[in-house]
Fold this protein.
Amino acid sequence: MCLRGIHKLDKPKLTLAQKLRRNEVKMIISNLFEKKKPVISFEIFPPKKEAELQNIDATLQTLATLHPDFISVTFGAGGSSADNRTVKLAQKIKKDYGIEPLVHLTCISNSKEEIKEILGQMESAGLKNVLALRGDVNPNVPAKDDFRYASELVSFIKEQGDFHVSGACYPEVHLEAADEVSDLRNLRKKVDAGAEHLVSQLFFDNNKFYDFLSKVRIAGIDAPVEAGIMPVTNKAQIKRMVTMCGAALPEKFERILERYGENKEALFDAGMVYAVNQIVELISSGVDGIHIFTMNNPVVAGRICEEIKNLI
Ligand code: FAD
């Protein structure tokens, strides 16, 4: 056997993730779904204080060992171009960890000029993937008049340059929507405006997601839809989530709360197992992707990834 042959055989093949890290493939999040199913992503939020941005490294180091396909970074309600912690953290994820970030951006409290400035910050940081959101109506943060809905932000971003846009969707109908059909119609507008990939609101009942997904496809929306999973770690958190986003709690979850609501450790364990069971069932059903709301807790993300490592 000639040496050239040996050399050829020994050369390790690069995985898709490695190629992406080497920038051999242009990283467009919506394209991931053509190559991999399920896509696994994490969501984190930027720490409130600038100084804490340093501590986020401990979280990121653990998350990076789990090899997510991308990490999304939330944008504070009423966030502005002056407060660019989201962009800074996204830049860190890309530069220091070689993982593609998805930058959340809300529009209800920002003018077109302000959105342009944030997109400029993204451009300078080499960030191309953006989750275009309206943001929640907040009585403490006055709305500006330039954008009313996320679909308008999607169109605006597409006009500004070579960005790849994702959008949010709601398996149990957005709380302000007139009804399910109009919510789906509005989702279609967002996709028609250029949203190439959708991330769902958290839900605890997979049947609600399957039902929603079949209606999404009937509505002619063929963008990949990631299922948003929130591992519940404490009782206060679940109460807040249910009120904020209107996710229904299935009876089996109510029973967990009844039995373990006052036992922190037991509820944590039960919450993890519940999330893992949801994910296993979703993956077995062929879901496009799983988006894990990590709440910046690497223990939570690590435990889930350990349980599903042979499934993905
Ligand atoms: P839209 O798509 O604009 O929908 C909002 C409502 O308006 C819906 O009821 C819809 O049916 C209706 N609507 C839409 N278009 C029209 C139209 N043309 N005519 C009439 N009605 C219309 N919030 C943050 O502040 N920061 C974050 O980082 C953040 N990240 C999120 C991540 C995910 C995965 C999800 C699911 C939500 C996130 N949110 C975040 C919350 C989000 O901002 C709120 O749920 C918000 O209330 C709606 O945002 P949207 O982009 O879905 O809005």
